[in-house]
Design a protein that fits this description.
alpha/beta, Rossmann fold, seven-stranded parallel beta sheet, 7 helices, globular
């Protein structure tokens, strides 16, 4: 897989970084995007493995930023084999009463609209079925996008329901082009976004959660499957977390 290219939005920390490292370990050149250039640079500079992490700063709410990353990848490698949509935020105010309209708009812009715009920007150079078996889009939604969990909050859950629909629609629409789309629904994952909860979980609880590298391993597994195989949806959660 050494000549393949991946792009991971939200790739500087959390699930995005876990996925980026797993793909790089498989020999990919992985472009990681996010708003904080210093975080991306540290992730890229400290990675040691078979592939390469490349810092590619971009705010997913900026159409021009995302188009700029795609243009850079096109110049560097000419293609995207795997696109992983991981950028996501939440806020401390999570009830309808407490969430402000600005917070609602910001979460929807990042978690849903940002995923759509990144996907749309990447499609012109996504690998298709006439180039080594086709490309893969991994859309990281959430269990909160399948079940409206009160803990996740009204804006986050709504954004992840939109993300779920995006992945399903894209999978149906792009199949004829040789592009597979997988929706992943993580449960509780030990990432920095937990600090934004009204009551952050204890270290003991965090130690029981899914790790970002666990999700990275799942993505790596999907990538290795034959191009004729389509994993449309996947739930990954801690053992203790119920799926109701």
């Amino acid at each position: 897989m050494g000549s393949q290219t991946a792009w991971v939005t939200g790739g500087g920390t959390g699930i995005g970084l876990g996925v980026a490292r797993a793909l790089a370990n498989d020999g990919f050149t992985v472009y990681i995007s996010g708003r904080r250039e210093s975080v991306l640079a540290k992730a890229a500079d400290t990675y040691e493995g078979a592939g390469t992490l490349v810092s590619a700063p971009a705010d997913v709410t900026s159409d021009s930023d995302l188009s700029g990353v795609v243009s850079r990848i096109q110049t560097d490698t000419g293609r995207i084999d795997v696109l992983t949509l991981c950028a996501g935020i939440n806020v401390t105010n999570r009830t309808i009463n407490d969430t402000t309209p600005d917070e609602w708009r910001r979460i929807l812009d990042v978690n849903a609209t940002g995923a759509f715009v990144a996907l749309k920007a990447a499609l012109p150079i996504m690998a298709t079925d006439d180039r080594d078996g086709g490309g893969l889009v991994v859309n990281v939604s959430s269990i909160a996008g399948v079940r409206a969990l009160q803990m996740a909050g009204v804006a986050y859950a709504s954004s992840k329901f939109a993300s779920l629909a995006l992945g399903i629609m894209a999978g149906n629409e792009l199949a004829d082009r040789g592009i597979r789309v997988t929706n992943i629904y993580p449960g509780e994952v030990n990432t920095p976004i937990l600090d934004q909860r009204t009551v952050p979980p204890t270290p003991e609880r965090r130690a029981q959660m899914v790790r970002p590298e666990d999700i990275g391993e799942m993505v790596s597994l999907i990538v290795r499957l034959p191009a004729t195989t389509h994993v449309s949806e996947m739930v990954i959660k801690p053992r203790y977390q119920e799926l109701t």
